[in-house]
Amino acid sequence: MKKLFIDIFKYLFFLGLGIFLFWLSMRKLDFDEMIREMSEADYLWVFVGLLLALVSHIFRSLRWNLLINSMGYKTRLSTTFYALMVGYMANTAVPRMGEFMRCGVLSRKEKIPFNALFGTVISERLFDLLVLILMLLAIVVTQWALLGDFVIRMTAPFVEKLGDHLILFAVLSFTSLLMLAAGIWFWLKKRHSLHRLPAFDKINNLLSGLAQGIRTIDRMKQKGLFLFHTVMIWLFYILMMYVPFRMLPETAHLNFMAGVTLLAIGSLGIVAPVPGGIGAYHFIAKAVLTELYAISGHAAGSFAVITHAAQTLLNVVAGAIGYLLLFFVDQKPPSND
């Protein structure tokens, strides 16, 4: 009961944070002007952007299949894709729930151990995080004249606070390292006696499965194909951000690199622990468009609202359809029976 209360409190807190960020980014805008902008938008470009998003999800499913197959389990592209979309649907409601949901759905459908699947998800998330970091660094280095002042303004408050609390930060870092070292020492010293604990085998099997999934990239034979799918995933991510620029007269002139910049920086809003990236994405996308590309606040706000709403609708509809197809239409036996 206590855990349920804590989970509800955390969810409401981050939902409230998202709503606050949304209000913060829109509070000074004329809503009548925004409604006019959105009513005159060419939604054909939004539709094309959603199709490009689906293509990127297909490549993500293909890449996930490579990781799963490298562990010796069989999957079908259709079931992996449907499970992925169910996960995206879950993420619109509860942050990070989608990773658990897509693994649970695919585990149930194809009879693959959940912990092994979750390990592959951790592996691909770490790889994508590396890609995102490299993309951000490349953008900052190649466009420092454009991004320099923006980066300094955005990071200045954090740097100032870090300087003010440098001793506290050092103490916390040292304490964390000390606790990690103590944990490793305890495991090495007591690992033989831990075997007698009732939950040891269950925890050990869970950790072994996670480790097996995480090591899939290193063990995978088709590394070239994995990299190709990764490039295609991010290329279509950029295109799904770039193409909707055409829907508004004020953003229609923005080039491909603007799409790369908005995707890379806007992704920080999507990964924020708020339901569906609400508020965080709007705040960052509006800041990027207004601060870097001199787009009016009304047009930038309209772009953020339309693209976020469209992606959310896609995730919910495709996720719901995927779940129905997996468990009520597709009657094929599990691939790993």
What's the overall geometry? Answer: globular
Number of helices: 14
Share of helical residues: over 70%
Average of the residue pLDDT scores: 82
Q: Strand count, sense and closure of the main sheet?
A: none
Q: Indicate the proportion of strand residues.
A: under 5%
Low-confidence stretches: none
Strand element count = 0
The rounded Rg comes to 22 Å
Order of helices and strands: HHHHHHHHHHHHHH
Structural class: mainly alpha
Number of domains: 1
End-to-end span in angstroms?
A: 37 Å
What is the topological layout?
Layout: H1 2-26, H2 31-39, H3 43-69, H4 77-93, H5 97-110, H6 114-142, H7 144-164, H8 166-194, H9 200-214, H10 216-219, H11 223-242, H12 256-270, H13 280-293, H14 297-329
Helix pairs in contact: 1-13, 2-14, 3-4, 3-11, 3-14, 4-5, 4-14, 5-6, 6-7, 6-9, 6-12, 11-12, 12-13, 13-14
How would you describe the overall organization of this protein?
There is one protein chain. This protein has one domain (2-328). The relative contact order is 0.18. The protein has helices spanning 2-26, 31-39, 43-69, 77-93, 97-110, 114-142, 144-164, 166-194, 200-214, 216-219, 223-242, 256-270, 280-293, 297-329. It is mostly helical. The radius of gyration is 22 Å and the shape is globular. The mean pLDDT is 82.
